[in-house]
Design goal:
The protein contains one helix and nine strands; from the N terminus they run αβββββββββ. The chain is α+β, with helices and mostly antiparallel strands. It is elongated and about 95 Å long.
Length: 189
């Protein structure tokens, strides 16, 4: 009697060992991936807001007009307004040309709308002057509160947050929190 020819493939034992090893590796990889995703969400929100700042400043220079940024809790509606908590930018923001800090759709030029974050991020500013601030026609910061700071944080706290600083000359910079040097998420200073 002849032996049956051996077919190519995996045995059940080999398959079970491979699947078990993959499961063990995933147990260690998934928590790290979760932190990576959260950090990417914070960075993305910071990039969006930083882009709005750059747009506001460049449009102030280009149009020779005062450009206002204000928090808005209805930025995605057809009739947005500067509304919401004074220092809370989490729900969105508006960039518009105006002589004052309130948006009027009939007279003001709406330049950019930020929809905010739906990932549970906290976006707060230190500016308490009606919650809005502006760039003057020459691109400098037109704020009675002086330099403006905005902190973007998630539930992990300031060590994983990002802070955007807007100097009185209008230039904005950002820095990431770190152990021993966290971003102040409740009152950026």
């Amino acid at each position: 009697m002849g032996m049956l020819p051996r077919t190519a493939g995996f045995t059940l034992i080999e398959l079970l060992v491979t699947v078990s090893l993959a499961a063990v590796l995933m147990m260690f990889a998934v928590p790290g991936l979760s932190g990576f995703v959260k950090s990417a969400q914070v960075r993305s929100a910071a990039y969006d807001l930083h882009g709005a700042l750059a747009t506001a400043r460049s449009e102030a220079l280009r149009l020779r007009a005062r450009m206002v940024l204000c928090p808005s809790d209805d930025s995605t509606t057809s009739d947005p307004s500067c509304a919401g908590a004074v220092r809370d930018w989490s729900t969105g923001w508006l960039v518009f040309a105006s002589g004052d800090d309130t948006f009027d759709a009939s007279t003001d030029l709406l330049v950019k709308v930020g929809s905010g974050s739906d990932q549970g991020l906290e976006v707060r500013s230190n500016s308490t002057a009606v919650g809005a601030f502006a760039f003057a026609e020459d691109g400098t910061l037109d704020s009675a509160a002086g330099a403006v700071r905005i902190a973007i944080c998630d539930e992990r706290g300031g060590e994983h947050g990002v802070q955007i600083d807007i100097a009185s000359l209008g230039a904005s910079t950002s820095w990431k929190g770190a152990p021993g040097e966290p971003v102040d998420c409740s009152d950026p200073a």
